[in-house]
Specification:
12 strands, Cytochrome p450, globular, mainly alpha, 20 helices, three-stranded antiparallel β-sheet, 2 domains
Amino acid sequence: MKPISDFLRKLTSSREWSLWWESSNSSDELTRVTLALALIFLAIYWCAWVFIKKQGAAPPPPGPRGLPLLGHLPFLDPELHSYFADLARIYGPILQLRLGSKVGVVVSSPALTREVLKDQDVTFANRDVPEAALEAAYGGSDIVWTPYGPEWRMLRKVCVREMLSSTTLDSVYALRHREIRQTVSHLYSQAGLPVNIGEQTFLTVLNVITSMLWGGTVKGEERTSLGAEFRQVVTEMTELLGKPNISDFYSSLARFDLQGIKKQMKGLALRFDGIFNSIIEQRMEMDKEGGNGGGKDFLQYLLKLKDEGDSKTPFTMTHLKALLMDMVVGGTDTTSNTVEFAMAEIMNKPEVMKKVEQELEAVVGKDNMVEESHIQKLPYLYAVMKETLRLHPALPLLVPHCPSEPCIVGGFSIPKGARVFVNVWAIHRDPSIWKNPMEFDPERFLRGAWDYSGNDFSYFPFGSGRRICAGIAMAERMTMFSLATLLHSFHWKLPEGKLDLSEKFGIVLKKKVPLVAIPTPRLSDAALYK
């Protein structure tokens, strides 16, 4: 206020002002008074505007204070999804954590999620790429971590139109059918013995995906050996991607890799890279010789795209291998974990098991095997899958988003470059949204019309907006086909002991204790299992 008052004092004491104000023309008196008042009010308004602007800047979201330099890092619980949910009950549906030199923001309500993933979708379309992902995804050159822009759109188009479209998935049904039947045959040979359901499902999904990727290239025993190696590597990679890393929170320390996470991930990525190089060389050699290896596969298409792609946004060998990595890592663990959780929940509620078996008997019959054509006629099993994804979403915090510019969410300021977690796990268990949210109740999805479109921010297990999961159709088909076949072909019971439904946090949610169960054949003819 002082600069303005000084200005007015100087103005009113000036000779020109005095001459004008002291004019003997009485007809100008009202004009002079009006002008003086206008100047005073203008000065007051300007000062008030500056004060309000300064005071009215959106504050940061609330949250715990943390420690100097470290912020809240020392207090993070390894089970981040449930820990963030506990904090939200204290600080509200949007909260801020200082994570070293980085700002973390957690969103835990449908309304605020809509602001992030729909209303400001473009602003939040980028990722805060962790050091581990840079190693795993060829410098972040894949569809998950690539920044939003022409390169990402090109990769998305390749995946959605060529690999994961309904037409493509229909064309490779025989691959899914073959691998599911092989799993059934193996389980039949293990009847009466404990079986690790997650492991068997993983190998089934892996064989389907690798058949789609390079099915005409790798055959026989080599595929079996690759399956065992892939499962070990995928498990270790997803664990590293979900582990808090000092290098991500203090960029100046990244080069030192104090926890060794970058080194570990590099070793795992090199194992994959060696496999990819070998398979690519085989495919290129086959193409030179004029063979097609028994039919076209996705790898053949990608190699052609690399040679003939758009020069403005070229598709490189790095992109090719990064997409192979996405398909193998992203498509296997998520689906197999969902099937494992679903089986555990079903076995924990005998009345659900009974309803599933009755529906399968009515639609498929005990003298037939499940085909994908039966899937759309199984509404109760669909409800089981949806309820599983509600309680145990594959990615409980989605993949963290990163605003490309400062913005406002829920009346709070979010800085550019923050790591924004959308806690879909907490939203799916919110008692203000879901009745008896902790109970596994598939019938709630028979009463409601929830889907995977990402338009309902009370239920969005595959995310929403531009970065919504590209593999929804594939995940849905594999999960339903696997569940229907396992539950129709066998009755399942637990070995001695109590069923454990506890979770283990990671970028992909897992069962803390693997599900081991004993299969008993249910079909009328043993020949169906061969």
